[in-house]
Structures are given as C-alpha cells and as structure tokens.
User: Fold these one by one.
Assistant:
Number 1:
Amino acid sequence: MSFSPVNKNIGRFRWRICAVLFLATTINYIDRNVFSFTMLDPVFRHQMLGIPLSQPLTDADMAMFREKMSFLDSIFKYCYAFGFLLAGYMIDRIGVRRGYTVSIGGWSLAAVLHGLVHSVSGMAWARGLLGVGEAGNFPAAIKTVSEWFPRKERSFATGIFNAGANVGIIITALCVPFIISHLGWRASFIVTGAIGVFVLFWWLAVYRTPEQHPKLSPEELAFIRQDGPPEVEKVVKWRELVKYRATWAFAIPKFMTDSIWWFYLTWLPTFFNSNEAFSTKLDLKQIGIPFLVIYLVSDGGSIFFGWLATKFIGLGWSVNKARKVTMLICALCVVPIVFASMTSSINLAIALIALATAAHQGWSANLFTTVSDQFPRRAVGSVVGIGGLMGGLGGALLAAKVGFIINTGGYVPLFAIAATAYLLALLVMQLLSPRLETVKLPD
C-alpha cells in the first residue's frame, strides 16, 4: 500500500512547498508548547508565584500555581482566537507570501520575549503576543494547499503539514527538559524562538504562486489546476461569509474540538506528573518518553487519516462521504480516552491518549480540508480564520477553568468531555452541511 499519490511523470515540486509548511508548523508547535514543559520546572514555579527558591511549595501554593497557569493559558488562546481571525483577513488581502512572513516573524519574536519576563503579568503579555503571531500558521498553510494542490490531494497534503504539530511537540518534549536542566527555563524560550528565523528565510526563498514559480513544470501546473483555473482574487467580506451554513459547519466543530487538543498540549505534562490515580508519576527528566510515543502515533494518525479520505475518493466515493466517514472513524477512536483518567497504569494511559491524539489530528486534517472543498480559494483564508477564532475561543473558555476543574474534580471530567466532543461535532456538521456542497460566492 502506497501512501503517496505522487505521479513521477508530472513532477513533485508541490511537495517541496508542503515540506516548508511542515517545518513551519513544527516550529509553530515547538514555540507554543515550551510553556507546558516549563510549568514543571521548580524555579519557574517559584518565580511565577513570587516565592523564594529556599521556601518549599505547599499544596495551597500548587493549587494557586495551577490557577495562574490556567489564566496564562487562556490569555494565549484568546489572543490566538482573535489573531486567527485577523490573520485570515490579512492573508486573503496581502497574499500568502507576505502574510506568512509577518506571522512567522511575529511569533518567533514573541517566543524569545518569554525568556525575558519576570512575573505573571509579563508572561501574560508574552503569551498574548505569541498567540496573535502563531494564529497565522494555519490560515496561510491551508490557503497554500488550496493554491498548490488539486482537490483530490488536499487532505493528504494537509495531513502531512499538520503532522508537523506532532513533530514539534516531540522535539519539545525531548529537548526542552534538557535545555531547562542545563541552561534554565529562560533559555528554553530564547533558543526555540530563534529557530523561526531559519524557517522564515526558507519560506521567502521557496514560495511563489504556481503560475509565477520558475521551477514548476507546465505539466505539474496543469495537474495542480485540473479542477479549474485560479479565480480572480476578489475580496470577500466576513459579513458575507457568516451567512453561509458551510462556514458554521466548519467553525462550530472547531469550537467543540480544538479545546480538547489545546488541553492535551498544555496539561498532559502536568497530568503525567501529578495525576492521583497513577501508581508512579513522571518528573521533568522522564516526561519526554510518553510524549515521544503519543505524538509519533499522532503523526501517523494525521498522515494516515488524511490519506484515507484521499483513498476513499480514489475508490469513487463522493468527497462528502469520504470526509465524513473518515471523521466518524476518528471520532470513535477518541471515545476510549475517558479511561485514561481512571487507570493506575501510565502505559495504558499513554496508549489511550496516543490513539485519541492520532484521531484528533486525522479529524483536524479532514476538517480543515472541508473549507477548500466548499469555498473558492479567495475565501479560504477568511473562513479558516473564522473557524480558528471559534476554535481558539473554545480552547480559551476551557483553559480558564482547567485549573479549577483539576483542583476540585481531578482529570476525569476533562477526559469525559474529550470522549464525547467529536461525535457531537460531527453531528453538528452533518446538520449544517449534509452534502459539503460548493459555495457560490457573489461576484
């Protein structure tokens, strides 16, 4: 079984563009996820609480720390949410090349600033700026895929670049604890943030639109444009897009399921470090192992479920049936995660979480692709921006309460929410867009 739909006689330069998107997404997730591992560092905890290092932290101190981290996490997500909307608007108007450049540069600078602050209020500013900058990644990447790939390859291409999220988390889990242990928590932000500069230069060197790219063969350009020539890039206003049920068929499932992914990213290190149900717990030096397993499996899920929808379409299924059957499989794979919060076995918890995160990435790849399935290219960035706003708001609302929920009820309620969210979200999508029909926008 081959996972690649590449035809060697056509050319494969479009996959180089996909490789840049993969690397940018990897760096994007490294920068946003450093914070969740820094939360385990005793020096960071003391400094954020304003308590001398010589003074041990009490249970009350740790409860307060979790509340403060929930606040910081929600700040990032609120800014990410509204930044997503602004990013989609910006990218549809100034183009992918310039828009992605602004985004990568902005989030890299904000990531470095994390290492220079000394208080919760300073960290809140850094988290907010990071959220605004990082919001440009997915609107830019999804629009790039819509420009560079025919419809039948888009979910596979999206699955590949979306797998960069998992690679970023794996690199963070393996490298950031080492950096913190040897250089301190500040260095972890500064070193990882500086890497974005290299991605920025690669993006500027490689990206052009297909029609303008000197290295793209006529045969590959014809293959990319098999669904029709590029349309006139007329701006579509948000107030027009929110009238369409297809917009909400994307945005509401984002609201319902992005919060689950955000919870994984921020709180899984703390879960493995402090869950009362576990017979053994993991410290900062041990935490990289479960994340290596979880997000390698997640990478496979992103690529596999992106490929699976493409395979179904190749078998003659409609785009609607292929996407939704794949997303149903993903939703069912998440259900068992509720038991991860109840078991005393870390190994079983890792396996259940790995299955759920792989399913989420497959779900996300296909959900993103429904935008380019239904909307013309000129509206893709803005629709993804609206969905990102809703996803970020869902994540921020849950993030603001995570510390309180853990302090009062443990992790079971949070994993129960995760187990049901995807099935409910798919039901909403089906009700709003039963056929994934192409939206005809006014001229």
Number 2:
Amino acid sequence: MKGGASTRRFFRVHLEDGSTLVAMFVPGKSQEIAKTSEEGRRWPFLEVRDLLAERGVLVPRILAEACDDGLLLVEDLGDDTLANYLTRRPETREALYRAAVRDLAAAQRALAELPAGSIVRERAFDRDLLRWEVDHFREWRLSAHGIELAPADREVFDRAAEHLATTIAGWPRGFVHRDYQSRNLMVQEGADGSPHLAWIDFQDAMLGPRVYDLVALLTDSYQVFTREFIEARLDEYAAALGLSSAERQRIGREFDLVTVQRKLKDAGRFVFIDRHNGNPDFLQFVEPTIGKARAALARLHDDPILAELDALLDRVL
C-alpha cells in the first residue's frame, strides 16, 4: 500500500475468509523505533491509539502486535483517505470539513485532561522544536537550493524565527495530533451511508497550541481552500467550543502565526524528504506551501518582525 513521508511500509493482507487487514512494518532503525527508547514503553502509536479510543475518537483497531519485530496488524479502514474521497465526491467537501472541525473540537475537550505518564504529556511544541522547524526551511529550501543569506538577511531570518518560536511556545498547550490533514483522516461510511472520519498517523501526538491541528487541516499542502472557506471553519470551531467574539479574533491571529511557522517547516521538510530519503513525491507541494505561509505573513504585516521576514522572502525567492 502507498505510504506517506515516513519510512514505515504498509501491506494489505487478504485472508481466506475474504476479509482484509493491514500490516504496518516499521524498519528497525527508523524514527518510529527511536521514539520508543524510553525503557519498557509501548510504541507511541499503540499508546496514543488507546488514549484516543478511550476518549471517543474513531481509530483503527489493533489486531496483533509484534513490536520487537517491527510489525503491527491493524484494522483495514480502506483506501478512502479524505483526500482520496474528495477526488470522487468533491460535493462532500464542506460537510466533511465541518465534521473534521467538529471532531477536533470534541477531541480537544475530551483530551483536556491527560493521564499521568502519558507520552503526550512528555512531548511538546516548545521553543526549541518550533525554532528547529523554522530553521529547517532555511537549511533545506534556501541553503540546499544555493540561497545563502547575507549576514544582515540571516539576522532578519533568525529574529523572525525566534519571534515565532517564543510567541507560539508561550501559549497554553493541549493535545495536538500534529498532522491532522486530509491524508491522515479516513472516511468511513456508516450503516445509514453517512460518512465518519477516523484518525490515523497519530503516533507523534504531543502538547501544543489549540490552533495547531486547525492549521494542519485548513492549510493542508495537498488541498486548496478559499479564504472564505477557512474563515467559516474557524467560526465553526469557535462556536463548537463556545468561544467569545474576542476569543474568535484571537483564534484568527494565532492561526496565522502558526501557519507561517508550520508552512515554512513543511516546505523545508518536502525538500529534505527528497534529498535525504530519496522521495521526490512532495516537491510539487513546495511552492504552494510557501505561498500559504506568504499569505499569512501578508495578514500579519502589523508585526514589524514578520514584515521584515516577508520582505526578505520577496528578495531571495
């Protein structure tokens, strides 16, 4: 089965009774294994899956696990990622994205209190991680393409990167899926034919800002949305959580700041995946992803540090 950007491999297994399941193979030296180095801990995929299932999130069932051999057998949810489903039934886009926003708000409420010792509580979008991700853009989208910043420009970039990292790290934190987008949501049709969304690829869940998964969903590098569509979904999110009009305005500002941080990281990551992993599939999304960061920067021009960053990107790109 086609996988994503990680080194994990997936196989559909056909059983004699006509049913199917999915085998997930994790190579021994991959990041997924490295993240489980805490003594005696189950794979984060398993730990987070159980937490989500307990709190009412639709996730695949685990049928068997042989973690020492890098292998899981999981429920087969089919091939209908949200991205795939929309290519066949584009008329369902608004309804499904409304459901995705509603599900996210419900999950955030259900996960407001996390169990002691949860791996989610032990990982966070802190200043160091956020800053590393922005620097990923400089290293892989700029330097790897021969764009070396002059000292004055490097100072502008570093100032903006630090500003983004410290600002976002200073906000309250809650559960974050980390990659809540159209390739990690599976469309499941109920008995009545109505679609439901199941979550996958949640093993990197951590603590982070409330808007992070909204940014992943609504600035998805693999989808194109109008600004009106995004604003409507942000309104729905605020309504689902009962936020005031002032909080709704803050949500919009937070959304734009995280969009700049996340989309710059994504653009650099897509180049890294090509250069480091030999997978060029994501290169087609580099420039559209930068475009989403630039659009957010345009809405943040009252911030002089980010206005400088926008002018710098104008010059070097």
Number 3:
Amino acid sequence: MTRANQIPAAPRHDVVIVGGGMIGLTLGCALAHVGFEVAVVDRDDPATATAAAFDGRASALAFASQRLLGAIGVWPGLAPAAQPILDIRVSDRESLLRLHFDHCELDARPFGYMVENRHIRTALHAAVQKWPNLVLHAPRHVVALERGPGLARAVLDDGGVIEAPLVVACDGRASSLRASAGIAARGWTYPQCAIVCTIAHERPHRGIAHERFLASGPFAVLPLTGNRASLVWTERADLAPTFLDLDRAEFDVEMRRRLGGFLGAAHTIGPRWSYPLAMHHAERYVDHRVVLVGDSAHTVHPVAGQGLNMGLRDVAALAEVLVDTARLGLDIGTTDRLERYQRWRRLDNLAMIAVTDVLNRLFVVDGASVALARDLGLAAVDRLPPLKRFFMRHARGTVGALPRLLAGHTP
C-alpha cells in the first residue's frame, strides 16, 4: 500500500503540485525542506518514471542549479552520477575560429554538471521518501480543480480530493491546468528534431562540453561519467526518421561523420530517442490560486541546454516568495503575492527564449557573409575577457539577483 492510499479522503495541504517530473518534485522537496505540507500528483508510476527507458536525455545542471539541489538535500544522492563540466567549446561547421570557456579563467569551479535524467528522477524520488510532510499521489491525475475564495480543491481520478490555498502547475508544455485557468500560451514548432543517444569513446573527454553548429542545427557532445558522452543531434524534422531507422552500424557511421575523431573510436550504446523541438511561453504565470512553473510556463530550443535550469530558477524564486509570504502570515495563494514571482521570472525567461531562438536561427542560415559574421562574433567574445567572463558566469547561472536557493542557502 502506498502512502497515497493511507491519506484521508480530503486532506489539507499548504501546496498541491500537479506534475511530479524533475521540476515538480524539486519544488516539492524545496517546500517540504522548510516545513510546508505538500502534495504532489503525478500521472506516472514512480517505477516507470525512474526506469532507464522512460527518458533517454541527460541534462546540464548549471552550477547554481547544483547549489539548489544541495541546499534541499538532493545532491548527495545524485553526485556519484554527475560529471563536472570543466570547459565549453563552441564551433561553427568547419571554421577554425572557436569560442572556448575554461573554468580556470574564473575560480576553477565547474560550469555545472552533466547528469542523465533517469538519475535525477531516481534521486528526487528517493528524497521524497525522507519528508513525512511531502506526499506523492502516483499514478494519479487531476480531473477537476475548484478554486474558491480561500482554498482550491483538486479532485483526483480515483475520487480522492485534496485541498490547499495554492495549486502549482508543473504538468508540462501541454498543461491542462494552464488551460483550465484560461491562460493562453504562444509559440511555434521548429522544423527540427533532437536525436538523443549515449556514446562510448576511446579517449577521455576531460569534462569538455562541445557544441558544434551544423547546417541542420547544433550537434552537442556532452560529457558523462566514464568515457561516455550524451549526444544531442539536431536534425531536420523530415530527415530525422531516416536516421532513426538506420541499424546501429549505419547510424554510427553517420554519427562519427559528424563527430570527427577527437574522442578516438566511438560508438552508440543503448537505445536512441527523438524529441520534436518547439517554443512556447504563457501569457502570464499567475491566476487565482494557480501558478505556472517550468514547462507549463515556457519551453525553449535546447541549443544552450537551459530548459531544466530555467525551470529550477522558477522553483527557487517561487519557493522564496512562498516562504516570505508565509513568514508574514499572509495567504500564499493570492494573486497579489504571486505577482512578485511572475515579475521575477518572466523577464529572465523571455530573454532566454529570445537568445536561444536567435542562436538557432542564426547558425542554420547558409551564406558566406552570414558565416563570416557568426565566426567573427565567436572570435570577438573569445578575445574580450570582460564579455567572455560575463558569458561564463551566465553559463554557471550566477548572473543577476539570485534567489537564496540558487546561492546554496535555505529560502
């Protein structure tokens, strides 16, 4: 019998989080860590969500994101599976001009860590078990949400009801809670698909993340523990199925043709996944007793590997707003209190959406003059130390007014 089966018919919580993915569970752990009574509702059985076949991606956790996970007690369970990112190298096709970020040019701390998503999910599910004030309802989903003047009531598919002053939508880019709150989202799909797999290679990667821009989009080789790397191959959406249908030997030939020989002999291990690429952004993040976090509020092109980090910055900001509101003895679910979270996060998310969209569009354009402008831009950043250090700090996630969690402190 799960804990969800042991809960009374209509328990009262401080916060109900709908969506128990990486963002939803991180928020749940962050709030439980400071004493909130939290319920998380997720469609997937934990055994399914933590299985190797569920999600083939790996994520680049920025240094600030790692500090957040450390502050809420999740990082110790994740550290053995984490590969530090020590350098970042960006190149454009066959150009000799490069952009190289070396962590030693700042203070020798890593830019972040590469971790396979299955390990992140496993660590979060393990952390959930530590908190008696954090209850996971899974596999369950919300079939109705009633929002009154002082309370929201979520009706689950098994007939159960849970109540809280605030409901947080962490239910993904097609968020049903966002739709039920009447919040529109605008965006577009890219004519691209991300092919994701893991490769084993002969030479050590030395903690270097490579981003090479090809005509179809970025081709990223991201270091994992051991002599392994996560490959994120952006391909035209109409061509991606052709590559995915190749047998392993044929696929490896195409992979090595794009990879080059800098890692020595290389071959894929395990299955291949593909993910369509899109951008969307909610017109607002807040409604009466509902707030949007993570992919329910925004998704971006993976060109800079910032999707998960944007969601974790949402988590840190919202946790701080809720803690500050509760300390004042005020209602955490009112729109006027949640507006602070929206102001804090919306501009930063809009900026990241714009940067990733422009980068992707700029680097897939052919033409000698455009290519020259791109390469001169990379070279200029590489040769201007103040600008280069700014971009390196941005890669770490340590630019701007940081929520307390992103500085490694309790919110």
Number 4:
Amino acid sequence: MNWAAVSTMTVLLFLFGTSLQVSWQVEGLLNQFGSQLVISTYLESGVDAGSLITQVKRLPGVVDVVSVSKEQAWSQLSADLGLSDISSAATQLKGNPLVDELKVKARDAEQVPQLADTLKNMAGVNDVLYVGEVIQQLRELNEGLRWVSVGMVSLLSMTAIAVVTTTIRLIAIARRQEIEVMQLVGATRLWIYLPFLLQGAAFGLVGAGGSWGLLLAIQKGLKSLATSQQPAFIEFLVNGLQLTAQQWILLPFTLLALGTTLGLLGSLLAVKKVAAVRHS
C-alpha cells in the first residue's frame, strides 16, 4: 500500500508537471506569434503617415512602428504585378489610388485586439487589418488544454487522496495496540496521530521528487535524441520543454506543494475516520 500511494502520487504529479509545461509552451508560442504579428493600419486619403507615427509609438503595448508611404506601396504593388511602366499605370488610374500605411507590432498576442481597436478609433485612420483568427484559435487551444489538464489532475488527485487515505487507515489499524497504550497513558490526539499525518506528507514529497526526476530524465533523453539528427519534431519538443530560470524554481516548488497538500489531506481524512471509530 505504501508503494501504491507513492506511485499514484508520482504519476499524478508527473502528468501535472507535463501539462503545466505544455501550457507554458502554448503561451510562449502565442506571445511569440503576437510579437511578430503586424497590424496593418491604413490611413485616410491625404493623411501623412509621419504625422501619426509618434502618436502610435506612444500607445501601450506597441514595440515597433514602420511607416509605408503610398509611393512605396505603389512601387511595391507595381513590382508584384509586373508593371514596367509605372507612370502610365498611374495616369490611367488618374493618380496613385493607394494611401499611407503604418505597420504596427504589439508586445504580445493578448494586446493585439485592444491595440487594433485603439488604432481604428484614431483620427486619420481609415481601416485596420490583422490576422485575428489565428490568435483566437491559439487562445482556444490553450484554454482547451487548461480545462483538460484541470479535469485530469482533479480526477487523479481524488484517486491519490483515496489511496493515501486507505494506506494510512491500514497502518493505523495495524498499530491499534500502540494507539491504545498511548491513550491509556494520557497522550493527546495530536501526539498520537501526528506521525500518520507526517507519513501522508512524506508520500507527497517522495512522489514530487519522483515526478521531478522523471521530467528531468525525459528532457535529457529528448536532448540526446535531438543531437543525434532525429526528426524535426523532436527538436521542437526539446525547445518547447525548455524552462526559464523562473520556471525552473516554480515547477519543482509547485510539485512539492501539491504533493504535500494531497498527502496531508489524505492522511487527515484517514485519521479522522480512525479517531471517529475509536471514540464512538
């Protein structure tokens, strides 16, 4: 039963750590995509991009602004269409029909929709375009992964608590004579049942250490595969599972805290049941 409690806790915390890393990876991809996404801001006819570029740079969340004059846009469009005589094409259209444009980059994907709305409401701006569907799909993917992780961790947490509770109850029953002797000599409930609570916490600590060791072993194995010219998705997994300095501290601390909490909760339930039976 001790092995069952520790192994169940280890599997739970390993899956929790894996899902947490995947969530961090998706958030990193979302922020990286958002920082590379360009918000195309088309100005009204006759409005010079230089008159708005300073104002746009001051907006919260803006990291870069590039102005494209209508002459530059017309030259690029003519080159893309393969027009050799630009002046004749402009004459046929009665001048350059394009407008000045500002290409705006946001700091992260979360700020793109709000920044686009702010730009659209600015004086002199005619239209704002960006690829919002991709950002929305990434957000929905990240949200879906979070809910799946929450459901999986909740189910396994209840399983771990049940296993720890059963294990501690069996240990308490096996030591019933020792407990009776301690009660006869006047020992308090806290003094009698504290070792069982500590044992439940120990299950969580050992499970957290085992899960952290498994995560490190998998990362090391993937790194060795990536260096031996394996398929590209192996390298993608290795890069995605890379932890920042803050995450290196946060992940093992979270595993220890969750494991200890579940172990204490399971042992507390077991102790309360044993105490209720003995004093009934």
